[in-house]
Amino acid sequence: MARANGKVILLGEHAVVYGVPAIAAGIGKGATAIAVPAERPLLVLGAERVVRAGEDDELGRAFTALHAATGVGSYRIDVTLELPPGAGLGASASIGVATARALFEASGIEAGRERVLEAAGAWERVFHGNPSGIDAEAAACEACILYSRADGARPIAVAGEVPLVIGIAGPSASTRVMVEGVAELRQRKPEVVDKAMAGILALVNAAKGCLGVGDLRGLGRLMDLNQMLLSGLFVSTEGIERACAVARAAGALGAKLTGSGGGGAVIALAPGDPEVILSAFRSEGIQCFATTVGASSGGTRR
Ligand code: MEV
To answer: Whole-structure pTM over 0.85, yes or no?
Structure first.
């Protein structure tokens, strides 16, 4: 049996696809995978979906790619997911990492982080086309990381914990579609997108400093600015803007979408009692939970 985390991106999504570093962290909710020997490779996702290696749909191709990348024999893997899928919380990377870990563990192979990430990367590429790799890296780690395509994941210093409330602002969108949307905008208006990327780089660098000294107020302001730049890339929605406004009105120091946007999750920086923001979300019908990220992430509660 193996586990992997879900993730939040504190700052830098989309820009990370173009080489800008982003700050991400694993969260306690994630995926659990149990592998047992079977006649044929089989992936069972909750009660809803049975995926056979070789099937010619997205899940079938992704599972085939992951299984081939591990190079192990035939197993049935039962996955339990604790996250809403497609909401920007890294559900698919979490399934990929947990499944790869379970396969290696069941086969008695002591696979290091790199082999696990290689197998999870093969799974992710089928869904996302050109993933930066940040989701799988965060799914495989406990702490806050600075991730870039050039340098991979590096742990970053965090003074204390970063308390977050996560709200599901609306139906999810495809990461592939959202990433392609930014790429199309960049083709049409390179100066607009490049300016946004430069702005996000500056925010990420400043946020690193805030995390290092535990300046949550500063971090919150940077998250709000990151949200403005993401809106300018057309990856925000009315639902996301509304959820961010609800969180700020209830005392959040900052709020933004997390992941690819187009719907899905927002993160709100929630010092003090998270219940205030949780109940503000609930009164608007926004499904939510509280979590903390930091030097060692993972304290999630409903
Ligand atoms: C998705 O969680 C984050 C994006 O930056 C895509 C990626 O990095 O692969 C939108």
So the answer is: yes
